[in-house]
Design brief:
Elements lengths: L6 H6 L2 H13 L18 H19 L3 E8 L2 E12 L3 E2 L6 E2 L4 H14 L28 H5 L28 H15 L3 H10 L15 H4 L3 E2 L5 E2 L14 E2 L1 H12 L11 H7 L4 E2 L4 E3 L4 E5 L2 E9 L4 E7 L4 E7 L8 H8 L15
Antiparallel strand pairs: 1-2, 1-13, 2-3, 4-7, 5-6, 8-9, 9-10, 10-11, 11-12, 12-13
């Protein structure tokens, strides 16, 4: 039986271990996933689930020492219910549905959707080296000419996750290994901005946020956020002010609400035409097609992690901005999904219980006992 790797492992796996995943898949040690889509088992009604969550979430917030949480549930490809619990600032300011959270890496799938719009319109090719779209080299490394948008969106670009204050570098040969990389997204952001002639925040707002009705969301700080932003909280529930980005980061600067992000999740379940704000079915299928296999249960697509559980395929992503944690997970086939935004360092601890209440099956992407807090 192959070992199951989870979030911490995905971020820390050595190149040798990740290569082992690929080789095992090629050699047939990890059997290919087939016939995975089937009807869901009998499960409680959504009305029962919501009533149960209303009772349990306040208790879970106390148990896990989480200040506040905003939750949205999608059913039948519609926003069924959303509610906020706890405090925007612990024991001082109760939370409301209008409060803003830092979505952290939930920024990445939304950016990936925007990239796919450029692909549909013939302005970007997933497999053309990104250097062909830029006027000046991003870094001085010959391997830069190998990196494509597909590599970046599937975390096989070879860039590290973060370079800190040091100049960014390429760790691995592009296209050979999965290595989660926020730096790769920043590189692709520069390319997108050069192609569109727009700052990323303007492009995403024009092409996605406004058409999807995500009116509370932005990759840069908005004046009304001064009154709506939640405070972050450390493990001891000490408040930490939210950072106020003035320049967008494709990797993590999105500020949003649970109900806003749910609109994006619903868009992932629908399809449109090349001229509409929704991606075509073929583009959505490409986003959710396995680009790299991590193990039998987890793959990575374009912008999304992919999970196979209970004979269903789910797309998901976490967000981790220290004192803000987030999770979004959904199934196109079932038309169900969950968005969880928290303003606490312990925020991910509550996610397995909430997701399990809404969706049946093992959550292989959410074994949070293996995540360091």
């Amino acid at each position: 039986m192959s070992k199951i790797y989870f979030r911490r492992d995905i971020l820390r796996l050595s190149p040798k271990a990740l290569l082992g995943f690929s080789c095992a898949h090629l050699l047939g040690i990890i059997e290919p996933k087939t016939n995975l889509i089937a009807k869901q088992d009998t499960y409680p009604t959504m009305e029962t689930v919501i009533a149960d969550l209303n009772n349990r979430i306040p208790l879970w917030l106390q148990q896990f020492r989480i200040a506040g949480l905003s939750l949205a549930i999608i059913n039948n490809r519609e926003l069924l219910w959303h509610r906020s619990f706890g405090f925007a600032s612990y024991n001082q300011k109760p939370i409301s549905d209008n409060n803003i959270f830092a979505a952290a890496s939930l920024s990445k799938p939304l950016f990936a959707y925007g990239v796919m719009k450029l692909v549909e319109r013939g302005k970007l090719n997933l497999d053309t080296p990104l250097t062909e779209y830029t006027s000046t080299p991003y870094i001085k490394d010959a391997r830069l000419k190998l990196i494509t948008a597909r590599h970046v969106l599937s975390h096989t670009s070879g860039f590290p996750n973060w370079s800190g204050d040091a100049p960014v570098w390429i760790e691995n040969t592009p296209g050979t290994k999965f290595s989660y990389s926020s730096e790769g997204y920043l590189y692709l952001q520069k390319v997108v901005e050069e192609i569109t002639g727009q700052a990323l925040a303007s492009y995403i707002d024009e092409q996605l946020l406004t058409p999807l009705g995500m009116n509370s969301s932005s990759y840069i700080w908005q004046p009304n956020y001064n009154n709506l932003a939640t405070m972050g909280h450390d493990r001891s529930l000490h408040p930490v002010p939210m950072k106020k980005p003035t320049v967008a980061s494709a990797a993590g600067s999105l500020r949003t609400t649970a109900q806003d992000y749910a609109q994006f999740m619903i868009a992932m379940m629908q399809s449109g035409t090349i001229t509409s704000h929704l991606l075509t079915e073929s583009s959505l299928e490409e986003m959710l097609r396995s680009q790299v296999q991590l193990n039998y249960y987890l793959d990575w697509g374009l912008g999304w992690g992919l999970e196979y559980s209970n004979k269903q395929k789910y797309f998901w992503h976490w967000g981790d901005a220290q004192t803000y944690k987030a999770l979004a997970i959904a199934s196109r086939e079932l038309g169900t999904g969950v968005v969880i935004l928290t303003n606490s360092q312990n925020g991910l601890k509550i996610c397995p219980a909430i997701v399990s209440a809404v969706m049946s099956g093992e959550r292989y992407a959410l074994d949070l006992d293996l995540i360091e807090y």
